[in-house]
Design brief:
Order of helices and strands: HHHHEEEEHEEHH
Largest sheet: 4 strands, antiparallel
Number of helices: 7
Distance between the termini: 133 Å
Radius of gyration: 38 Å
Number of strands: 6
Strand content: 5-15%
Oligomer: single chain
Shape: elongated
């Protein structure tokens, strides 16, 4: 009697012969994104062949563990982050002190000081530039300034810039240099300048507080990432407050000095 060949039976025989004896689930290589679909089907077929229901969550969890391994930050890395924050705080606070001092210097007192021209901008060949970059400024005596441009063709532009400023000085242009005579400050003008200085000092203090606030946020971020404990953040915040107080005192010192110069008759 002739034996009838069944393709389905043959495939079933080959399938169970090659897969059934295996006791562990062997996953294909998941290295490339293009193999995800084929790999998932392969796993489902093998699991189903052994009578176990396929659970996508199990597969997802397994792949996640294989593909992403969390690593805790080392003590050295944490210390490096803390040092970066502290260094940034001091650099920004020092810059704030420089800005406050520069603003104070641009306000004239009873004595001539080249710094009062620091904020004067001159139109030079169609581009605004600071006066001190295109001219040498000196003080021949206690009540006058001498502006000597490197390029004499800029004299008119420099004269115009000084006239349009709020310095209240009339430039004397002799075709070679510009001379400025500082008039005596009236009592009213001194008080007006004193208010401006006080406002600039307060703006400096606000900037210092904002720098402190940013640093606190950085420490709290490290705490959320489990790199710092709550006690660590408290200790660092206390140290940060000491640094903040230090720079607040610096602003107070230069403010008092400037106020003294303004009110001195």
């Amino acid at each position: 009697m002739a034996t009838t060949f069944s393709p389905v039976s043959h495939l079933r025989s080959v399938f169970y012969t090659s897969i059934a004896p295996k006791t562990r689930l062997s996953l294909p290589d998941f290295g490339s994104a293009s193999s995800w679909s084929a790999s998932a089907n392969y796993v489902k077929l093998q699991v189903a062949a052994r009578g176990v229901s396929a659970k996508p969550l199990f597969l997802k969890h397994t792949v996640k563990k294989r593909m992403g391994v969390l690593r805790c930050a080392t003590i050295e890395e944490i210390e490096a982050e803390k040092s970066m924050i502290e260094e940034d705080v001091r650099e920004r606070m020092e810059k704030t002190i420089e800005n406050v001092r520069s603003s104070f210097n641009s306000i004239r007192t009873g004595r001539a000081n080249p710094a009062i021209l620091d904020k004067i901008e001159v139109e030079y060949y169609g581009t605004p530039v600071v006066l001190k970059s295109i001219a040498q400024i000196s003080t021949p005596d206690a009540s006058s300034l001498l502006v000597q441009p490197y390029d004499k063709s800029s004299l008119k532009s420099i004269e115009k810039a000084i006239v349009n400023s709020d310095l209240g000085m009339t430039p004397n242009n002799d075709g070679e240099v510009i001379r400025l005579s500082l008039p005596q400050l009236t009592s009213e003008r001194r008080k007006e300048f004193s208010k401006i200085v006080a406002k600039q000092a307060e703006e400096g203090k606000v900037a210092i507080r904002n720098i402190r606030r940013d640093a606190i946020k950085s420490y709290e971020k490290l705490e959320k990432e489990k790199k710092l404990s709550e006690d660590n953040v408290k200790d660092l915040s206390a140290d940060l407050q000491k640094v903040t107080d230090e720079y607040m005192k610096k602003i107070d010192a230069i403010y008092k000095q400037k106020e003294k110069e303004l009110l001195k008759v």
